[in-house]
Amino acid sequence: ADADADADADAEPAPLVLDPVPPASHSVETSPTGPSGGDVSTLTVHLGAPGHPDPIVIQTGKIGRQAAGSVTLTRGDTVLYATASRDDDPRDGLDFLPLSVDHQERFSSAGLTSGSYNKRDGRPAEHEVLVCRLIDRPIRPLIADGWRHETQLLSWVLSYDGERSCDPLAIVASSAALWLSDVPLAKPVAAAQVGLIGDTLILNPTNKQMERSRLNLIVAGTKDAVLMIEGAADFLTEKQMVEAISFGHQAIKTLCDGIEELGKVAGKAKNYETIVSPPEGLQEAVDAYALEKVDAMFSHAPNRSKQIASEEMSSLQRETIEAMEEQYPEQASAIKGAFKDLLCRRMFVLAKESGLRCDGRRTDEIRIIESEAGILPRTHGSALFTRGDTQAIATATLGDSGMRQKIDRIDGQDSKRFYLQYTFPPSCVGETGRVGAPGRREIGHGNLAERALVPALPSEDDFPYTIRVESLITESHGSSSMASVCGGCLALMDAGVPIKRPVAGIAMGMLLGDKGSVSDENAVILSDILGTEDALGTMDFKVAGDKDGITTFQLDIKCEGLTVETMEQALEQAREGRLHILGKMEEALAEPREELPPTIPRIGQFSIPEDAIGKVIGPGGKQIRAIIEDFELSNMDVDEDGTVQVTAFNTTKLRMAEEFVTELVAGGGGGGGGKKSARAQYIGPE
């Protein structure tokens, strides 16, 4: 039986077979089957992608009728429920969109119960936080400017069949609920997941298919353009990435057409009445007063620090507000908006006409990079990565299997051998504020940097350590998550982790003449964006990888979409910037250290028969504790499959422990037939 199992493990994976499906289509039906005979409208969408036989069914009118918009979404035996709600009156004094998003994967959806003390699903898990961000990012840019009603999107996984990820469905369900409400959303939004096995792109792959996939991409957008991409890849080329995004967008078009038709049947009229437009002539007045001053501020930008540039911009904003107050009293928020619009447009004009940016760099120029490795004497690995005014201290810690990060999900309990934790204290931007548990932004940035480094790690067979990377942001002025990728890679190499190849990350930006449109041929692509360019621009596109391929990517935009042509340009410019950063990192540390530092415990790993596990552990764990004590081990773990992992700083003791366990399993060393003097005696509390 063991031989058969080994043969199965070594066998070639079965060829990919995708079942035929009906062509892409959608239909809407309405029937009086709701409570009290109310209308229930049902949208059925066939995506037309081989291997995706189950239609996506969105229904409204039966459940959650008191919300502004509510839907259930069904695919196979998976069911999600999503609602969109808003307050009756707008909030005064706000200059931002008050949108909140929450998503919950209920353990009961998979027939499980939370492992917490009171058996109740509690605070959002890390994965649920990441899904909230996936929902928020493509929807937020499409809600009308000036909407100030408190708006909340809620979604729950009510039933989960374990076949496919629910993440893209959560985006679709929340978008559909919002589209049916009176919240002024410009267009329907939809999402899809894309995998890649061999040369075949797969739409919404199964969980088993994802185990073989070199790509995990979630793409969201409207029927006209892409709004968001998120995912990880195993060193795929830019061309492969663009093909995958285009493939996913075809399904998005089908879904958006269906949701749009459902809105015509069951949706509410959009509420634009409470949106207060800026006073007539305000933008022209602000332009007339501040345009030349803004151009002058940008023209002497080279070599200015973030602090000086921020002070100049804030001072000019205050001056503009004071100058406009008499003509436009009690309109400070509107004046700020008009001033920001002016900054955006002049930044675009400067870059388009002169090829220079607000800090004097060329559009494809990277800020000065300085890197150091091995800066902390007692950590396993450490690095300081500085790019302009963005800086990160990264550390790497190696341990045994007991250091794995354990996660409870509706798929079951999982454990991570590698994890990256990102910290963004308020001091890194010169402010004070809350510290403690990580916020949603920190969780998202840490996950992005983690995905960037995973493909470069050695296999567990070659390097059996559990690896933890921490990134502490000490200065921030644009793309601290990509600084975490670069610093984390150097810290891993400093710790002696034999990574396959170095990885670097870069953040790309885009300037548009009209932020309310889709990207066009006039778009200006920026490499290594500043925080200012992120705030005033229309795109934040983070890409990480090595010189040959991409390992992770994240796109957020503030316009109505990104064309494939613009994305191709951004990816190529990102590749050139990535090569430059890798060269600078190589100057600090060209390859992993040949030896592990002495502060890292050594790990031995071997296997024993499964029926001998009880013998090694002993009654109540006495035997394994005795082995740890007698051979001065740091730890010893025995897995259910008979894999034994022993950890110690003394390699001689490590080898002696392995020999003892082998002899014990064979029948000696306390097993009843060996040398009695070799038995390890338990020493410890009763």
From TrEMBL:
Stretches with biased composition (Acidic residues): 1-11
Keyword presence, Ribosomal protein: no
Residue stretches making up the K Homology domain: 600-666
A GO MF term: RNA binding
Biological process annotations from GO: mitochondrial mRNA catabolic process; mitochondrial RNA 3'-end processing
Any one cellular-component term (Gene Ontology): mitochondrion
Region feature (Disordered): 1-53, 667-686
Keyword set, alphabetical order: Nucleotidyltransferase, RNA-binding, Transferase
EC annotation from Swiss-Prot or TrEMBL: 2.7.7.8
Compositionally biased intervals (Polar residues): 27-44
Enzyme class of the recorded protein, top EC level: transferase
NCBIfam families, sorted: polynuc_phos (TIGR03591), PRK11824.1 (NF008805)
Family: Belongs to the polyribonucleotide nucleotidyltransferase family.
Protein name (database record): polyribonucleotide nucleotidyltransferase
Origin species: Trieres chinensis (Marine centric diatom)
Phylogenetic lineage: Eukaryota, Sar, Stramenopiles, Ochrophyta, Bacillariophyta
